Amino acid sequence: MRLLFALPGFHRYDRGAEVALLSVADALARTGDDVMVMGAGAARAGTAYDFHSVGAIRRERFERFPFFPVLRNETAWEDASFVPGLLAAYRPGDYDAVVTCSFPFTHWALRRPARARPLQIFVTQNGDWPAYASNSEYRSFRCDGLVCTNPDFFERNREQWRCALVPNGVDLDRFVPGVAERERFGLPADKPIVLMVSAFIETKRVLDGIRAVSQLDDAYLVVAGDGPLRDEGEALAADLLPGRFKRLSLAASDMPALYRSADAFLHLSLLESFGNVFIEAWASGLPVIGHDSERLRWILGDSGEFLCDTEDQRALVAMLRAALARGREREGQPHGIERFSWATVADQYRDFITGLVAERRSVS
């Protein structure tokens, strides 16, 4: 198959959506598909796919811009700035299918009129509301295939769109239990470490994590992430966790070692579309504390023993204590994680898209 993956953040950020779609693109390219990736970053060595850099203004530049429908947040502004370069580089006839999770501007650009327009595959990495909402710009949403990253999205959309239920994955060669490398990150050797891998935005509830960890006498909180609430978070940590907090911004290559350097993983988003960080932490042997939901239990299975109502601070603090008491696994692949290998996930993408391509050819 000839595939295009397009997203402004490709090769510029290593957050959930970027990591997931690039991992799928790389796995597909390594097993024979012709894959092009377009993003705003620079080319990286060692990728199996081809990469074309498309200019876009960084989302951080838009944090103080006004937000309103269509331009609802800083990532939407970034998405809009990505489109001129994308349109200049995009040749619809070169691909059997195009894949994105960015709506509306990248989605609109990939759907531009063309005599031989490829199949439009939308992935619900950032939510499924474009697929079902009927207000404002969401009325313009169309796709030939919808990849749903959890069962809720699949059930909600299966009647309207051609859907496949496909989880995200994890690199099981990199995210493994092992020896901590705390000195490398400037972390204390004598304190239990709670790790959050979260953007400093409202929905990730990092500030609630700071408040919860402050109730533990000796725990040290590390947050790997950035975002508009970074200054507020650091100020709160200085007040509640003096000497027991560090914020890091790391390259993706450093993340496996950071996970192995922690004792427990905390993520407080109430309802992630999937949450790659959950399975990265699980694969690294960490106990996972998160908000109890059917969706997260579908992901973690029997490893969801430390889920709770995270809006109840007393329950959250108790679960943090229990998770730290258990500590991390130091060797061996955690049971059940193998179903999330990127090779397995990419096979599901290929099966879904090749089926759609075959259907189109059969009626043309």
UniProtKB/TrEMBL annotation:
Keywords: Transferase. Residues 181-330 form the Glycosyl transferase family domain. Residues 16-174 form the Glycosyltransferase subfamily 4-like N-terminal domain. GO terms for molecular function: glycosyltransferase activity. Pfam families: Glyco_transf_4, Glycos_transf_1. This is Glycosyl transferase family 1. It comes from Sphingopyxis bauzanensis.
